[in-house]
Amino acid sequence: MAASKRLSFATCNLFNTNEPGLAMYRDTTGWTPEQYEKKIDWLGRALAMVDADVWGFQELWHHKSLANLFKKAKLTSKYKLLAPPSHQGGKIICAGAVRKEMLVGEPEWIVNFPDQFVLFGSGDDPQTPEISVSLKSFSRPVLHFKIRPLDDSPEISVFVAHLKSKMPARVDTEQWFKSDKPFYGRHREGLGAALSTIRRTAEAAALRMLLTEAMKGNDNPVVVLGDLNDDKRSNTLNIISGQPNYLMGFSTGGSDVDLYSAGTLQEYRSERDVYYTHVHQNSRESLDHILVSQEFYDNSRKRLWAFEGTEIMNDHLNRDDHKETGSTDHGIVKATFKFSPAKG
């Protein structure tokens, strides 16, 4: 096991990292060899600089690309890479990397929502119509794995997620759209955005169910790493986190099923909030998150790991030249903790 009493997690959207020449979505030609080399170089240097113990990745298309990143960073011998060998450029997945001595068991990729997941309501009052959402699976499978950082520390469950983006879903190929193109054409953006929001919200609720089942009635530490495609104060994040109460005395609070944002924990140690991980139409957004259970919260009576700080690598977001430089279009978030159990 690791000798260090410190433990760090990082999350990074790889901006469609795929082997050169392979199609991605409607881009049939993919990355050129030159663009690919720049991506591997930039991301490899970022991996080495951030130097996290545990990584969560989004937008990985090919397992070889992840291996090449760690080879460039000269970290291959230190990490176990979590990406299926069968993953060879046909779709994107969540992936991971863990210092070899920490990984416990085998990773799993969760495609389907829990069997008992239901989104149906008959309405809170007579004037509210019923609502039903039939979605049953994640658009990007959730990666789940376990680690044990120290011999005398419990296992930690790590979930890596990538929820549906805020980009309006494409509706112009649907039959209902084609049936009245002039009318629906005027409403394409609004309807597409509504579908994306519904899908992201359903995915958040399904992820929340997985997390609650992992945390309820026990003291098992849980960490969520991911591009959740929404701000920390959004309804999406509220669903996933459970909106915990942060303002408790030292080692006196905590919640069995809530998750605490590393960004918010950092805010309490800073004079202002400078947390952003994405820029869209000149608007700075925080889409990439590290969420932790009460075992990582300083003010929890169940604390095992004390928060040391959050770092964000985001200077590259000030320039829209990601394809030219090989940089990712998201910030990289790292949170560090120190093993320091609360004294009961």
From TrEMBL:
<dbReference type="Pfam" id="PF03372">
    <property type="entry name" value="Exo_endo_phos"/>
</dbReference>
<dbReference type="InterPro" id="IPR036691">
    <property type="entry name" value="Endo/exonu/phosph_ase_sf"/>
</dbReference>
<feature type="domain" description="Endonuclease/exonuclease/phosphatase">
    <location>
        <begin position="46"/>
        <end position="309"/>
    </location>
</feature>
<keyword id="KW-0269">Exonuclease</keyword>
<keyword id="KW-0540">Nuclease</keyword>
<keyword id="KW-0255">Endonuclease</keyword>
<keyword id="KW-0378">Hydrolase</keyword>
<protein>
    <submittedName>
        <fullName>Endonuclease/Exonuclease/phosphatase family protein</fullName>
    </submittedName>
</protein>
<dbReference type="InterPro" id="IPR005135">
    <property type="entry name" value="Endo/exonuclease/phosphatase"/>
</dbReference>
<dbReference type="GO" id="GO:0004527">
    <property type="term" value="F:exonuclease activity"/>
</dbReference>
<dbReference type="GO" id="GO:0004519">
    <property type="term" value="F:endonuclease activity"/>
</dbReference>
